[in-house]
């Protein structure tokens, strides 16, 4: 123990601490100042930034013994409070800069010091500052953060007032379609939005700390697990293995299509017979402290018999490959595409024919907040599990049989989540928590470190694709053939569903009358495939959007013109053979045209250095809003003495479920004139909120939005008197009329037939186009994205700040997918930097968003979804721009510098 005198946020304090402990842990664990967050825990994300003696430092790696005596420390709690916000906090709210908000305290603290040193920074100064201090954000694409700092600087200089900047509502009080600030923003910018790890610190004493024993090999038979030594370690209460699991010890993958050859029960909660992938959970140590649990983890002995590890779809498909799940073939699901006439003769007769192979890999999600959760039994003996789940009702069904606890008594609650980007569409920590709670009958808490975040959770499923286009000499597509193999890792969870995306989205956006194709899902030993923003469309559309450029070259046509000729026009159908919900692609292209022409001029100018070459590229993006077929949702609305309460399971990754719910409910309640502050949101607790469905597939604004609208409309109808005026709450109660209304909505859609890929899977789609301008350094192969432009049609916009944020963030994830992100090498791809997370200087400050707002007949108040559109194909536009710049066509992502350089060398 050492004694430290410090001044924290102006208050002198004497601390008695372990000198080896970090400042972050002391602030959070000892002082309960949970505004400072811990993300990566290894100086890579800046979530833990605090100011010490006028310098921004990362407190997660600052040991207490290194802290100078009398150090003056400023944390987010000292920057501003809810009552007295710092201009940075106000600007963060005004610019929608806190999406999930996990990075916000770190960024705000960091920026405070910048503005103290320089109250008049340039945008580049701000970018350099965040780069230097490693402040990382996965949600916002950074631009809104720079906007916020610049605005805060203006506020500090007295050039503008808050009143001038604060969102203005129209006179009728409508918030739908405005830049109304999301309800959670205030808590997020003040560090008072309690994420899972913050709530974990507030658990009662006696809560057991859990740590995982993970597999360090990719495929093996388990011969024995010896926990005897671990059990004797200090503080250990129990070492839990498969033998302690009273249920089926499996998470069900919920087979979607009956032709799936698997049964969906292959994923162990705790490995029993086999290890299927690196990082699998073999045992859980429950102890009094996290340190004791971790020490005991090292003592668990696992004896293994190694098996061949199939680390890609082709490897697992090889003739001599053994079945990873004995009894189920490694290729466990197949689907075909049959649209129009036979394509073989058409391709043969085509004036122009192109064919290429494509690969989009195992993109890691890289939320700044690692996975975290806790579980306990309540007074009715219900097992309550808190996690980052974005599918609380679905996960209950997936994990309860495996845990062995009555599903009706297993209640999931979502904690505020620091980003998921889809990985939480799969259960991760939930079943581990459930098993540990049942085995110990005590409250349990489990947080992953970043290594576990990367090695335990699912990843984007790699697609190996071959695509062929045939076209007339005028450039009209006549036929397409596709073949795609989906590497879905060892667990089938929605593997069939993501494979269907190949039929639905290779070639999406274009009228292609004749299509044939074959797709398959392959079981492998690399990371299990979980949902990732865009879900199959970034893979599918990468292939067709790069091939469109190859076709344009073959035809000697401009890539824009070729696309313009082929995009959906009235009467055209999607690859699934149905009419899109609206025809807005032509308008989208028209809107992009001036930017495209300008970019062409830009590309002709000399690059920023003689060793660099400029290029431009475009792509179009289409994705559905909803789960396949007649997806449905439920939301309830209650009239109260204070206004209206909305009960909804619109899970929030950080995208803005609170804002979407509020804007939609407020719009539907407008006849009553309920003020936004009188609409209370009760969200994401199965004990209180109905099954609104998961927050995946960009479905919530449409599905949950419609259910919200229906519930509110029923409420309005319920309070309406015969003369058209409205009853008050008191009148409703006096007349014994119901004040609680259940809203349900089902999408008018039809699942695709797996043998033809034909159907009408989504009632609503999102449409867009991307334009990227790049400079490629031909001496290093490094690509810099200098500018991006996106035209988006997400229908009528519920909240402009939210949608702008969705687009910026998604596009920047597209830059990562194109150039740097991967999860392949199990030694290297284990943290944010190793996995290739884009930092602020890896992305352009110059991003233009343009909108086409086509009213959606099936969307609430005309809205489609927005979350995944920006990650459908931005990476394809970057890859096309690289080719345009230097003649190197990258078809196997990511386009890391060495790959581009190798291409340049091969060309020369
Ligand atoms: N919205 C709107 N107007 C529209 C359409 C949508 O204002 N016309 C708003 C909605 O109110 C919502 C947001 O845009 O706040 C996204 O809406 P929607 O597309 O319906 O998607 P969901 O709410 O179902 O969110 C999920 C979606 C997906 S699938 C992933 S993955 C994803 C994403 O959104 N992960 C995210 N966005 C993310 N954003 C952040 N910050 N973090 C993640 O993990
Ligand atoms: Fe400290 Fe990431 S830098 S938590
Ligand atoms: Fe930055 Fe989510 S808002 S990580």
Automatic annotation (TrEMBL):
Q: Name one Pfam family in it.
A: Fer2_2
| 2Fe-2S ferredoxin-type domain span | 2-79
Q: What is an example of a GO molecular function annotated in this UniProt entry?
A: 2 iron, 2 sulfur cluster binding
- Matches recorded under PROSITE patterns: 2FE2S_FER_1, 2FE2S_FER_2
Q: What keyword terms does UniProt attach to this protein?
A: Iron, Metal-binding, Molybdenum, Oxidoreductase
Query: What domain of life?
Result: Bacteria
Q: Which InterPro entries match?
A: 2Fe-2S-bd, 2Fe-2S-bd_dom_sf, 2Fe-2S_ferredoxin-like_sf, 2Fe-2S_ferredoxin-type, 2Fe2S_fd_BS, Ald_Oxase/Xan_DH_a/b, Ald_Oxase/Xan_DH_a/b_sf, Ald_Oxase/xanthine_DH-like
Which family does the UniProt entry place this protein in?
A: Belongs to the xanthine dehydrogenase family.
Q: What is this protein called?
A: 2Fe-2S iron-sulfur cluster binding domain-containing protein
């Amino acid at each position: 123990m050492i004694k430290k005198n410090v001044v924290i946020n102006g208050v002198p304090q004497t601390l008695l601490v372990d000198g080896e402990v970090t400042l972050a842990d002391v602030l959070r664990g000892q002082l309960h100042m949970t505004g400072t967050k811990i993300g990566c825990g290894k100086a890579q994300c800046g979530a833990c930034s605090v100011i010490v003696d006028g310098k921004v430092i990362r407190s997660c790696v600052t040991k207490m013994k290194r802290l100078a005596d009398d150090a003056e420390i400023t944390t987010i709690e000292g920057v501003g409070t809810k009552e007295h916000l710092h201009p940075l906090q106000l600007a963060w709210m005004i610019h929608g800069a806190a999406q999930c908000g996990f990075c916000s305290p770190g960024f705000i603290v960091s920026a405070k010091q910048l503005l103290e040193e320089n109250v008049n920074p340039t945008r580049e100064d701000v970018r350099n500052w965040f780069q230097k201090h490693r402040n990382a954000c996965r949600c916002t694409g950074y631009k809104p953060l720079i906007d916020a700092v610049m605005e805060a600087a203006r506020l500090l200089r007295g050039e503008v007032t808050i009143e001038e900047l604060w969102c203005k509502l129209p006179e009728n009080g409508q918030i739908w379609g405005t830049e109304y600030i999301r309800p959670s923003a205030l808590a997020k910018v003040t560090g008072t939005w309690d994420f899972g790890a913050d709530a974990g610190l507030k658990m009662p004493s006696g809560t057991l700390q859990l740590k995982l024993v993970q597999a360090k090999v990719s495929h093996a038979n388990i011969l024995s697990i010896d926990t005897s030594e671990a059990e004797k370690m200090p503080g250990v209460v129990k070492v839990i293995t498969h033998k302690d699991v009273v249920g089926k010890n499996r998470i069900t993958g919920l087979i979607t299509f009956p032709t799936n050859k698997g049964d969906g029960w292959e994923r162990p909660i705790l490995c029993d017979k086999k290890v299927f992938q690196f990082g699998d959970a073999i045992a859980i140590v429950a102890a009094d402290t996290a340190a004791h649990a971790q020490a005991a983890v090292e003592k668990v002995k696992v004896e293994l018999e190694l098996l061949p590890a199939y680390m890609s779809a082709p490897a697992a498909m090889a003739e001599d490959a053994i079945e990873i799940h004995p009894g189920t073939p490694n290729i466990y699901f197949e689907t075909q595409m049959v649209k129009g006439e036979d394509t073989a003769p058409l391709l043969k007769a085509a004036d122009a024919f192109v064919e290429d192979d494509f690969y989009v890999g195992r993109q890691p999600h890289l939320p700044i907040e690692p996975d975290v959760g806790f579980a306990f039994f309540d007074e009715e003996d219900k097992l309550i599990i808190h996690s980052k789940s974005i599918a609380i009702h679905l996960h209950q069904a997936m994990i309860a049989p495996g845990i062995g606890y009555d599903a009706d008594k297993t209640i999931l609650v979502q904690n505020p989540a620091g980003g998921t980007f889809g990985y939480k569409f799969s259960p991760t920590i939930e079943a581990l928590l459930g098993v540990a709670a049942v085995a110990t009958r005590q409250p349990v808490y489990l947080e992953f470190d970043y290594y576990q975040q990367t090695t335990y959770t699912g990843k984007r499923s790699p697609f190996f694709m071959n695509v062929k286009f045939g076209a007339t000499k005028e450039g009209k597509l006549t036929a397409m053939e596709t073949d795609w193999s989906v590497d879905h890792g060892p667990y089938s969870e929605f593997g069939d569903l993501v494979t269907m995306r190949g039929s639905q989205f290779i070639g999406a956006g274009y009228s292609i009358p004749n299509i044939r194709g074959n797709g398959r899902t392959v079981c492998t030993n690399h990371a299990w495939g979980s949902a990732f923003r865009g879900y199959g469309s970034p893979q599918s559309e990468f292939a067709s959007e790069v091939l469109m450029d190859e076709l344009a070259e073959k035809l000697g046509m401009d890539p824009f013109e070729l696309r313009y000729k082929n995009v959906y026009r009235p009467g055209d159908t999607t690859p699934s053979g149905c009419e899109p919900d609206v025809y807005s692609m032509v308008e989208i292209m028209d809107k992009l045209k001036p930017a495209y022409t300008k970019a062409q001029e830009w590309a002709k100018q000399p690059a920023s250095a003689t060793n660099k070459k400029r290029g431009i590229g475009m792509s179009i993006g289409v994705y559905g809003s909803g789960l396949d077929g007649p997806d449905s949702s439920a939301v309830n609305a209650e009239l109260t003495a204070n206004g209206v309460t909305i009960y909804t399971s619109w899970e929030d990754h950080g995208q803005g479920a609170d804002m979407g719910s509020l804007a939609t409910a407020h719009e539907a309640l407008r006849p009553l004139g309920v003020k936004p502050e009188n609409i209370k949101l009760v969200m994401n607790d199965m004990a209180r909120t109905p099954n609104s469905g998961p927050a995946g597939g960009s479905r919530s604004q449409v599905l949950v939005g419609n259910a919200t609208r229906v519930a509110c409309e029923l409420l309005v109808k319920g309070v309406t008197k015969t003369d058209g005026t409205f009853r008050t709450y008191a009148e409703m109660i006096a007349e014994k009329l119901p004040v609680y209304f259940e809203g349900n909505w089902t999408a008018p859609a039809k699942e695709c037939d797996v043998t033809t890929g034909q159907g009408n899977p989504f009632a609503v789609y999102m449409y867009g186009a991307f334009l990227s301008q790049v400079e490629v350094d031909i001496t290093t192969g490094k690509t810099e994205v200098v500018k991006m432009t996106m035209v988006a049609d997400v229908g009528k916009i519920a909240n402009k700040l939210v949608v702008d944020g969705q687009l910026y963030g998604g596009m920047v994830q597209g830059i990562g997918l194109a150039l740097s992100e991967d999860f392949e090498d199990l030694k290297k791809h284990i943290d944010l930097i190793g996995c290739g997370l884009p930092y602020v200087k890896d992305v352009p400050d110059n991003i233009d968003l343009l909108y086409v707002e086509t009213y959606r007949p099936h969307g609430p108040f005309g809205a489609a979804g927005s979350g995944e559109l920006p990650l459908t194909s931005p990476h394809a536009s970057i890859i096309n721009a690289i080719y345009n710049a230097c003649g190197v066509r990258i078809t196997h992502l990511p386009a890391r510098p060495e790959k581009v350089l190798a291409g340049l060398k091969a060309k020369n």
